[in-house]
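User: two proteins, same treatment. go.

Assistant:
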Amino acid sequence: MKFYSYEYLTGRIAVTNRLQLILAAAAAVLLVFALFKYYRERRDTKYRELSLIALFGVLALICARISSEQSHHLIDDQYSSAAHAVETVAEELKLDKAKIYINTRAARDGAVVKAGGDFYRIIAVDDSYLLEKMEVIDPEIQLVDAD
């Protein structure tokens, strides 16, 4: 069973896709260059075609980025809910957040929390959590910390 640390959960919220940003910037630079050359030499159509290709590339990358941002937003919400659950459990048990691990990336009913050497099951009640102490027999625990 995998347990994720608080640092891992909060660190995953800020992940961005740099490659997509670099490709979009390169396509935008190519578009500006092609438009500049096209307006300078209006008789040569190769720059017009190049600018159209670059424009379509920029539009495709923008659409892909919007879709990616929407899916990342949903994932970030899940990590935020798990991090909030760890914060609440740390407050309730009066422990440091670094000593608490949760077995899911999204806080939900039935999530298991490892706090020190004890295990608790989280039961969501309205805006708060109820902790039920549990005994784990023969656990195969793998702790996942921040990179």
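Protein 2:
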Amino acid sequence: MRAASILALIGCLATVTESKVYTRCKLAKIFSRAGLDNYKGFSLGNWICMAYYESHFNSTAQKFLKDVQSIDYGIFQVNSDTWCRRAEFQEKNLCCITCSALLNDDLVYAIICAKIIVRETEGMDYWQGWKKHCEGRDLAKWKRGCNV
């Protein structure tokens, strides 16, 4: 009986830490409802394309950057050095959130922070994935067939 309880607990913990990888259309709907379509002049296609090239639509993606000793977090790969706070460090935290909040499948904090980044940096140039793969391109395909 005890072994069964332990296995059940392990199963619950495994579900909690599972990655949430969204589909393109699910993100299109979430982003649209959150007011990202044409936010600061950037179409919905820009946001979906950027999220794909930054995290492959994975809300729990993390990338450690050795050169600057920081971490990129979540669906938008927001950097801990400027935009969020890790518990053990005193970063600038311009989004006024913990970095772990960016790993939430709800995406509310990630979207709020992304809007702050676009507003404070005057565009989407912050994201290298967007600059390299999305900027200046026809992005209609990113929302095609999604009914948004």
